[in-house]
Design brief:
Blueprint lengths: L13 H16 L10 H10 L5 H13 L5 H6 L2 H8 L5 H19 L3 H4 L4 H9 L6 H11 L9 H10 L8 H11 L4 H17 L18 H21 L4
The structure holds iron/sulfur cluster.
Length: about 250
């Protein structure tokens, strides 16, 4: 008698899968109310300062700017560059970041009368292009500004998103930034609060359960959905089966 092939697990459609993951993360973390800032302009500054550094360093730099009464678009645009560098030094790459901040703020002042809302108004793709045209503003920074400073529905992709969704098995690791962003945006409802919370939850998961060098899959709300965790469980099962066989060869 010929054996039946093992039943293939049915893959969920991508939109259902991404929504289900969001649902699990929401149940686990609740609302995270991002971004931690007192004003849209502070989000813009934070989005530039957080490039290649930990958020705790950004907090110190922002605190320095606040203490020196310099956290405004007009002041940052005209502050002597050396003074700005010193204030943001804790965020690392401070020379580059000072130039980036001044490039953007001077542009906003000169061409948009310092009006961030006007600069970020109009079709989403056009505004995104406008941001990407500024020195040192890449896709992640542009999308963070769009989503968290001015509430436009632009999904943010970062290293955490890549890591988690690769481990889950949704990404292969070869996708470019825009492909990943499109995947989320084409499969989720266009909704600023959804994108806001989803990205915040991804960051939270990456910092708690799904770290770069260590995973805590048994505590992770996505463990049932995750290819990495499934493989790990199978490996564990195989190991204990083998162990059982060698310890008790007669069973
Ligand atoms: S189950 Fe493990 S590998 Fe998968 S997302 Fe969670 S922590 Fe990361």
């Amino acid at each position: 008698m010929t054996k039946k092939p093992p039943e293939q697990a049915k893959e969920q459609p991508r939109n259902k899968q991404l929504s289900h993951i969001h649902h699990l993360l929401s149940e686990h973390f609740g609302l995270l109310h991002w971004w931690p800032a007192d004003s849209p302009f502070e989000v813009v500054v934070g989005a530039i300062l957080t490039q290649n550094t930990a958020w705790t360093n950004v907090e110190i730099a922002i605190q320095n700017l606040k203490q020196a009464n310099t956290l405004s678009l007009e002041i940052l645009a005209t502050l002597p560059i050396k003074q700005l560098e010193e204030l943001i030094r804790p965020s690392g790459f401070f020379r580059q970041k000072a130039l980036r901040l001044q490039n953007l703020t001077q542009h906003l002042l000169r061409d948009w009368q310092g009006d961030l809302t006007a600069f970020c108004s109009g079709p989403l793709d056009d505004v995104r292009e406008r941001l990407l045209a500024r020195t040192g503003i890449g896709p992640e920074t542009a999308d963070s500004i769009l989503l968290y400073a001015v509430g436009r529905p632009s999904f943010v992709v970062d290293a955490y998103t890549r890591r988690i969704f690769e481990r889950i098995g949704v990404l292969t690791g070869k996708e470019k930034y825009n492909e990943i962003r499109q995947m989320f945006m084409q499969n989720l409802t266009e909704d600023t609060s959804l994108y806001n919370e989803y990205h915040a939850q991804i960051v939270q998961l990456a910092k708690t359960c799904c770290r770069k060098k260590q995973t805590f899959c048994s505590a992770c709300p996505l463990s049932k959905e995750c290819r990495f965790a499934k493989q790990d469980r199978q490996k564990g099962r195989r190991l204990s089966e083998n162990k059982g066989r060698s310890e008790n060869p007669e069973v």
